[in-house]
Structures are given as C-alpha cells and as structure tokens.
Specification:
Blueprint: H1 5-11, E1 29-37, E2 41-51, E3 54-63, E4 69-80, H2 92-109, H3 115-119, E5 121-133, E6 136-148, E7 151-161, E8 164-173, E9 180-191, H4 192-200, E10 208-218, H5 222-228, E11 230-235
Parallel strand pairs: 4-5
Antiparallel strand pairs: 1-2, 2-3, 3-4, 5-6, 6-7, 7-8, 8-9, 9-10, 10-11
Length: 236
C-alpha cells in the first residue's frame, strides 16, 4: 500500500537519508510485483511501482547470475527528474571543477576493466511518456539496449521535444583492448527558442533546429577519443 518514506523516518526520529531539490519528493511510494525464483533464475512480473506522481509498470528476468543474463521491460508514464536531484548549494561549480580534476588524474592512472561487460547478456526496453531533465521537457522517450559478447547496442534511442524529434543509435564494442564507439544522430524540427528558454533561461535565438551526424571514436580517455574521432555531420 502507498506510504510516505519521509513520514516514516520522521516517525522514528531519524533524518531523511536523501536530499532532494523538491522537499516534497519521495513522499509517496507503493509497490506491487510477483516474484518467482530459485538459485539459478529470478523473474519479476506484473510489477507496478508508484513514486509520487509517477507510475512505472515493469517486468524482468535474470538468469546465469555469473554472466549475468538479464531481460527487462519498463514503461513510465511521467517523471520530473529535477525534483529528485540534490539541491544546489554555493560552491557547486568549484566542487565540480575539483571532481573533474580528480577524474582526469584517475583516467591517467587507472584503466577500466571491461571483463564484466564482455560477459553481460542484456535485452532491455524503456518507454517514458513525458520526462523533464535539466528543465528540458521530453515526450515519448523510447530506448532499446542489448548486449552480448562485448557488443552493446542502443537502438533505437528516440524522443520528441519542442515540436521536433530526435533519433539516435549507439554501438559500443569492448571486445578489444580499447573500446570502439559509433554514434548516429538525426534530429529535426526542434524549436530552438523554447528549448533554450527552458534549458538556459535565455532568449537568444529562434528557429527550427535540425542536425544529423555520424561519429566514430576509439578509447575511453578524452585525449585518446579526440585523436581518433572521425565522422561527419550537418547542422541547420
């Protein structure tokens, strides 16, 4: 049944563990799901998750846990992700700069282990009716991700925004020493004025935005990616 996590923590005299930009977020949660499983496989079916004003229906199967082999299908009616982000604080920009500097040093010292991705078997579908992220409003988000033998494909990745549409494909190959990535993007009919007004709170341009590009790159560090980057594109 629906309950309030915030009231639960308040009732036991504990501070709420998650800080959100909207202090009323995470105030209503409900869950219904059928679970079947054993030591070798797990199945979730007829899942319905309620989170504040959002409703998610889902099913999932997992087997061969050492690989693992996962299938899922999720449909979300609507969500405003900005409500669930941490509240902005003074000094965030300086902190982000320090994190980037630390990440750059980490990139130079540590190489990613792609072993788990090479074993992963995955087939997942995600649909979202309406989505707000970084104040940008998105409709009809659809993504299908598959993975097998170290090859991961995001095909399709599509969405509608500001009277236009975006269609993209991402192909990632981690079978070799360095990851190889291919990206295609086709967007058309996006109204730039309302988009920038929501995203940047500035009215600096108007017009219909269209773009298409095909890019390829090798490696994971920014320097390696820049040296290997190739492709072509068009922006109108």
């Amino acid at each position: 049944e629906s309950f309030s996590p915030r009231k639960l923590f308040d009732g036991i005299g504990q501070p709420f563990p998650v800080k959100t930009a909207d202090p009323k977020a995470l105030d209503k949660v409900s869950l219904k799901v059928r679970i079947d499983g054993n030591a070798k496989a797990l199945s979730l079916s007829k899942g319905v998750l309620g989170l504040d004003d959002s409703n998610l229906t889902f099913l999932a199967d997992a087997k061969a846990f050492d690989k693992p082999d996962i299938r899922f299908d999720m449909t979300l009616d609507k969500i405003d992700l900005d409500r669930y982000l941490p509240p902005k604080q003074e000094g965030d920009s300086q902190q982000n700069a320090e994190l980037k500097s630390t990440a750059k040093k980490s990139d130079q010292q540590k190489k990613t282990d792609y072993g788990p991705l090479r074993k992963l078997v995955l087939d997942g579908k995600i649909k979202v009716g309406s989505l707000t992220a970084a104040k940008v409003k998105i409709q009809d988000f659809v993504a299908h991700i598959t993975a097998k033998n170290g090859v991961i494909d995001l095909d399709p990745l599509s969405l509608n925004l500001y009277q236009g549409s975006v269609a993209s494909k991402v192909h990632l190959d981690v079978t070799g020493k360095d990851p190889r990535t291919q990206i295609t993007l086709d967007s058309k009919g996006i109204q730039a004025g309302p988009l920038l007004k929501d995203a940047l709170e500035k009215e600096i341009i108007e017009g219909s935005l269209s773009a298409n590009m095909t890019l390829g790159m090798v490696g994971e560090s920014p320097d390696r990616v820049k040296k290997s980057l190739s492709g072509k594109g068009e922006l109108k």
